[in-house]
């Protein structure tokens, strides 16, 4: 499944402009980059997402395209980024982004740049809903206030049942072809909508709700800007996790290491994709969490893990890392094998693991060594890997 993300950054920010803010909210500087880039840093860590389309104000397209190129290079993003001009309405901007998607893109996330706090976990939940057959999936939160319907005289005409209501957010996830058809149908009927899910609804499609996130706030008013301010520092304590894994050589899975295919005729016997390095990394992360090992969470007796990408397993563990508010500070990885030679893959593996963990690549160290022809690795019968993860966790909770 090829998933791309459309980042909507073409708005004019009229409410903030009226309050005297000269800079459009999507371009506010935050964490060393424009606000829209925060979502990119988060979503780029989701394994299924393969690229981004940015929709900018037409008059700023050239300057923003250069900014994206610079940011992508600085962050070593390693995935395509396309930039297009937006339209007069939100739906026009989305359609412009849809037209720029590659033909291979089967699913798409549409995300507002003014929601910089959406998590990778939320994006993964939306993509999972599509994988299980949903045509469209959107995040929604239960409504806690009582909602009244009023007439033109401000007289209440109805009280809605709030148990049936949800406040929806972005990103929203869609089957690409279905969303394009919905846009074309709404354009033909001259319908204006406030979100893309409304288009699916208006054309008879089905939209599934997944749990939204209370922290996924949209920056709309001057008061919301306080959300961007750094929070008071919290006392953090260190923890260390250690991971170890072994795989035998033999007819089975193509050779992958750290999520990177390796050009060799060697194959690995494994239930999943056989990525020994990511398995050791997952074990080390679980060690930081005190949650056992990879076999406990992803047993090789479970058919649903047959051939699964190890990056997906790591991402599942990272959701637990996020729940416990762990901050990964450094990762040290070692592969022990007589063959194949891995020196030329060092940079790619380092960068891919850093992207997967959402940390800077300077905090990922990768080494490859041999055991001087001793033991099963020296006899070229298999490969093993060890991983050490250093992390910090809030002092008010256990690691």
Automatic annotation (TrEMBL):
Annotated transmembrane regions: none
**What GO biological process terms does the UniProt entry carry, in alphabetical order?**
isopentenyl diphosphate biosynthetic process, methylerythritol 4-phosphate pathway; terpenoid biosynthetic process
Query: In terms of domain of life, where is this protein from?
Result: Bacteria
Q: Annotated Gene Ontology MF terms?
A: 2-C-methyl-D-erythritol 2,4-cyclodiphosphate synthase activity; 2-C-methyl-D-erythritol 4-phosphate cytidylyltransferase activity; metal ion binding
**EC number of this enzyme:** 2.7.7.60, 4.6.1.12
Return the Pfam families for the record: IspD (PF01128), YgbB (PF02542)
Residue ranges of the region described as 2-C-methyl-D-erythritol 4-phosphate cytidylyltransferase? 1-238
Q: Which residues take part in binding a divalent metal cation? A: 245, 247, 279
> CDD domains this protein is in?
CDP-ME_synthetase (cd02516), MECDP_synthase (cd00554)
**Which positions does UniProt annotate for 4-CDP-2-C-methyl-D-erythritol 2-phosphate binding?**
245-247, 271-272, 293-295, 298-302, 369-372, 376
Q: Which cofactor does it need?
A: a divalent metal cation
**Swiss-Prot/TrEMBL site (Positions MEP for the nucleophilic attack) positions:** 162, 218
Q: Does the keyword Nucleotidyltransferase apply?
A: yes
Q: What UniProt keywords apply to this chain's record, in alphabetical order? A: Isoprene biosynthesis, Lyase, Metal-binding, Multifunctional enzyme, Nucleotidyltransferase, Transferase
Which family is this sequence assigned to?
In the N-terminal section; belongs to the IspD/TarI cytidylyltransferase family. IspD subfamily. Belongs to the IspD/TarI cytidylyltransferase family. IspD subfamily.
**Mind telling me which PANTHER family this protein's record contains?**
2-C-METHYL-D-ERYTHRITOL 2,4-CYCLODIPHOSPHATE SYNTHASE, CHLOROPLASTIC (PTHR43181)
Role according to the record: Bifunctional enzyme that catalyzes the formation of 4-diphosphocytidyl-2-C-methyl-D-erythritol from CTP and 2-C-methyl-D-erythritol 4-phosphate (MEP) (IspD), and catalyzes the conversion of 4-diphosphocytidyl-2-C-methyl-D-erythritol 2-phosphate (CDP-ME2P) to 2-C-methyl-D-erythritol 2,4-cyclodiphosphate (ME-CPP) with a corresponding release of cytidine 5-monophosphate (CMP) (IspF).
Xref: HAMAP family: IspD, IspDF, IspF
The molecule here is called Bifunctional enzyme IspD/IspF
Q: Which organism is it from?
A: Desulfobaculum bizertense DSM 18034
